[in-house]
Each structure stands twice: as structure tokens, then as C-alpha cells.
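Our working data are protein records whose layout never changes between entries. An example says more than a description, so a record of this kind follows.
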Amino acid sequence: MKGMIRAILVLGLVWVLAGAPEALVAARRQGAQLRVTLTSKEVVDGELIGVRGKTIILLTKQGDRSVILGEVATVFVKDATGTIVGGVAGMTAGVIVDASMWRSFKRDTSDAGEVVRALFTPGAYLVMGLVLAGGGVAGMLIGHTVHKGRTYNVEEMTQEQERGFIESLRKKAVVPDYK
């Protein structure tokens, strides 16, 4: 049992360290990714920098862009929740599969089982790591496919809903208290 726990801890550490370079690159606070469709049917994609009154400030490929809420038809807010939840679920499934593989690997007490264990124990750790990583990646892909974000129909919002929407955007901005 100690070997199993040790293997799971090592695999978890490898998983965390594999994501470290991306975490270093993403050191600056990032705003939500938005796709704003204006009432004129123009589509503006960008990172949410801030909200000032009823104006949304985005960083687009062409530069900064201010959009007045009155000109907005819909806003799609990209969301990573599905990807994160899927990854955790996939890794959990990987741990369960690894645990059952490890138990069956340790139970074989025949002479052949002893030889296999002696020769393939390092390989078993590798296979367990691959199962764990594969489960995590598969879960992330499924989660991303199922839940990419949410679309808000601004044209149909009441004033109270608009205020709540603006407040929720403010929390997702690079600069929450944009002046």
C-alpha cells in the first residue's frame, strides 16, 4: 500500500510540474476573453481590460477598443471551468484505474508474477503515469467541449440585470476598478 501511495504522490508531482512553465508565462493577471456582437452585427474579440460605467474596454489584436453597452447585442464570455472540472475528473478516473492496476499487479504471487514484477516495476510506474495523464487530458478535452463559456443577451436585459452583468464583468477584468 505504501508503494501505491508513493506512486500516486510521484505522479501527482509530475503532473503539477508539467504545468509549471505555463503558470510562469501566465504570471500577469488575465482578463476574461470576450466575443462582443454589436447591434450593427460587428463582432469584436478581445481580452477584458476593464469596465468604466457602461463602457467595456477590450484589448483586441488591433489595439484597445471601447464598446458602449447600449451598442451591444450579445456577449460571449469564454470560461475554463469545464476544462478544469474535466481535467480533475479525468485524473480521478486515472487514479482509480491505476489503483486497480497496482492491486492486480501486486496480487499475482506466482513465479511468473514475481519475474514480471522484478522486470517491469519501473515500467508499471510509467504506465500508471501515462494512464493518469491520459485521463486528465481526455477529461480536459471533454470538459472544454461540453462547457466553453456563456452567452449573455444584453439587448433583453433589464436595468437591474445590466448592473449585475457589468459587476460580473468588472470582476473578470485585468483592472477591476478601471478609471
